[in-house]
Amino acid sequence: MSTMRISQLATRSGVPATTLRFYESAGLLPAERTPAGYRLYGEDAVDRLAFISAAKHLGLPLEEIAELLGVWQTGACQEVKADLRERVVTRIEEAERRAAELAAFTASLRRAVEHLDELPDRQDRCDPQCAFLGRTPATAPAAYQDGSGRRSVPPA
Q1: Residue 45 CB contacts under 8 Å (≥ 6 apart), including other chains
Q2: Whole-angstrom Cα distance, residue 106 to residue 103?
Q3: Is 137 or 28 the better-scoring residue by pLDDT?
Q4: Which of 35, 55, 73, 151 is most deeply buried (CB count within 10 A of its CB)?
């Protein structure tokens, strides 16, 4: 069996060595060790990294990728397909929910812009009685309501 060191695997796969080390620590990419402590990978590591990359592009978290790798490594293709299909359908549902939230938020922002355009230009300072402050546009979706101004998605 042919083996390669981490730098060789990084070159062949296009995955940085730091990521390879992380994948090893996360249990996604096993490595043998030389007596000197160097990591050694088999030829199958390139295919494994391609599988991990494809799963990441589908939005799967590392925990799910680890579970799916177990099926991929020991199961038949139809088992991998069935497991992956269920996970992808879940991602589609999540994406559609987020898309609906963003569409509602975008509509709220458009209403706010329209309202701002309708307001008279006052020379006075805005105060609590200001027409804009008195009329709040529809609230942002839950994904934006952590108060930090950053997007935060509540746990599923």
Answers
A1: 4, 9, 13, 29, 31
A2: 5
A3: 28
A4: 55
Positive or negative, the CA dihedral 125, 129, 130, 134 is: positive
**pLDDT at 123 (0 to 100):** 83
Cβ within 8 Å of residue 131, ≥6 positions away: 119
65, with CB counted inside 10 A (0-12, 13-18, 19+), is buried
How does pLDDT run across 21-44, given as a tens digit for each residue?
999 999 999 999 999 999 999 999
DSSP of the chain, one letter per residue? --EEEHHHHHHHH---HHHHHHHHHTTSS--EE-TT--EEEETHHHHHHHHHHHHHHTT--HHHHHHHHHHHHHS-HHHHHHHHHHHHHHHHHHHHHHHHHHHHHHHHHHHHHHHHHHS---SSPP-TT-HHHHSPPPPPPGGGTTSSSS--PPP-
User: Facing residues of 33 across strands?
Assistant: 39
Backbone angles phi, psi at 3, to 5 degrees: -125, 160
69 is written with which tokens? Answer: 């790798």
Is residue 101 a contact partner of residue 143, using CB atoms and an 8 Å limit? yes
